[in-house]
Design a protein that fits this description.
Elements: H1 6-9, E1 11-16, H2 30-49, E2 52-62, E3 72-82, E4 86-96, E5 103-116, H3 133-152, H4 162-168
Antiparallel strand pairs: 1-3, 2-5, 3-4, 4-5
The protein binds coenzyme A (COA).
Residues 54-57, 83-86, 112, 114, 116, 120, 122, 146, 149-150, 153, 155 line the site of coenzyme A.
InterPro entries: Cytosol_ACT (IPR040170), HOTDOG_ACOT (IPR033120), HotDog_dom_sf (IPR029069), Thioestr_dom (IPR006683)
Protein name: Acyl-CoA thioesterase
Family: Belongs to the acyl coenzyme A hydrolase family.
Length: 169
């Protein structure tokens, strides 16, 4: 299978924040943002693998900045690294200033998707070939994040988390 660049899976979804999607402070409800990110990330994983994909885990979410009612929100997802059957998808969330049109980073998240066949069994995916400095940084750190996610899920032992151990050596 030929490696693909993160750009080849890049998925951008832009939408408004409507009143039914807000919390009592009139900011975007966290669950609504999680759903938007999941949708964009699953399309990115599908573009990378050209397979059926399922969400295996949400590794990290940072709600750094509240997103007010009426905001124009852009969710941008790219596959940052692929392993054997799983893919890490990095999601950046931007909001757009109404008058200037300038974009500001609001949130980010990292999801893991697994490519599966029609019976739900994991199947191999192409590798990722990062191009930009940021893509290279995210690619390198993805292995550490995978090990942390598997460790927290009880799927590997601490002794198998070599990348995490290296952080403390
Ligand atoms: C995700 C799923 C396919 C994994 O199946 P599994 O039997 O655990 O398969 P494996 O153990 O072979 O894992 C498959 C890959 O997922 C990775 N993985 C599994 N759990 C993970 C986790 N918590 N974090 C990171 N990666 C994980 C494994 O490391 C493996 O990656 P690799 O092949 O690239 O090395 C299966 O658990 C599933 O179908 N879950 C439900 C998915 C779903 O319905 N999502 C929507 C939410 S309702």
């Amino acid at each position: 299978m030929q490696a693909k660049t993160p750009e080849q899976s890049r998925t951008v979804m832009t939408d408004l924040v409507l009143p039914s999607e807000t919390n009592p402070l009139n900011n975007l409800f966290g669950g609504e943002l999680l759903a938007r990110m999941d949708r964009a990330a699953s399309i990115a994983a599908r573009r990378h693998s050209r397979r059926i994909v399922v969400t295996a885990s949400v590794n990290h979410v940072a709600f750094n900045r509240a997103i007010p009612l009426g905001s124009v929100v852009t969710v941008e997802a790219k596959v940052s690294r692929a392993f054997k059957t799983s893919m890490e998808v990095y999601i950046d969330v931007w909001i757009e200033d109404r008058e200037s049109g300038d974009r500001a980073k609001a949130n980010e998240a990292i999801y893991t998707f697994v490519a599966v066949d029609e019976t739900g069994r994991p199947i191999p995916v192409p590798e990722v070939s990062p191009e930009t400095e940021l893509e290279k940084e995210r690619f390198i750190a993805a292995l550490r994040r995978k090990q942390l996610s598997l460790l927290l899920a009880g799927k590997i032992k601490p002794s198998q988390a070599s990348e995490l151990k290296a952080l403390f050596d």
